[in-house]
Amino acid sequence: MTSSNEQPASGQPPVGRPGSDLSYVPVGWLIFVMAWSVYGLASAWWLTGNSGLPDRIFYFLLGGLAVDVITILWGLYLLGLAFGRSARFPRHFIIWQVATIVWVLARLAYVLAVPDFVFSARSLLIAGAEIAIGLLCIYLLRRGSGAEGVYSRPSTEAPSVFVSVVAALLGIILGAVIGAVGGFLAGSVIADVAEVSCFEGGCGYFAAFIGLAGLVVGAIAGGILAVLLVHRRGRKPVA
After folding, report:
1. What's the pLDDT score for residue 29?
2. What is the model's pTM?
3. Cα distances (angstroms) measured from residue 145 to each of 155, 170, 223
């Protein structure tokens, strides 16, 4: 236990030692939300081709897919700030988290207002959990919490937002291509070894599914790696 006489006179935690290790929780939550968005893209994309859906549901699903894409791209930038230990991470994360909570509330209000949707207590609980965890993350990164000491390197300056976004897009494209090709080849090999039936193109669909999974994983991994490398190598000493 640390005695009270070891704390700075100002009452603030020393630089580099936040008031609580929970300052790292927002990064884990960000990664989870991004993974959930990838799952949403993979599980709901086929619904957009269903012409039998009412317009109110069809456009709602399209909006959800668009939000998932924005969440992934925005999240890659935030991860770059976090992994690069940029002092801008807490403020930018809070902006992202507030926007996410607004989207959750708008989505919930739309579902409750449109009669085409069936009320689900499970969905309400999930939305409540998302908001609660988001508010907790905002609290952990609030000004004066000491989180600035974790996500900062006073002697260096992080690359610009434009550089980070360009790096993320290039990483996503390259990672998606590599993941799709590698996944398709792996799927073909697995189909041959497991003797998956090719009746009505079964083995081809299996390989394509593995390729799609590889594309998603490769895109996420490529984007994160690209931003991480840029923030590690592209830092400039502060004059």
Report:
1. 92
2. 0.64
3. 21, 35, 30
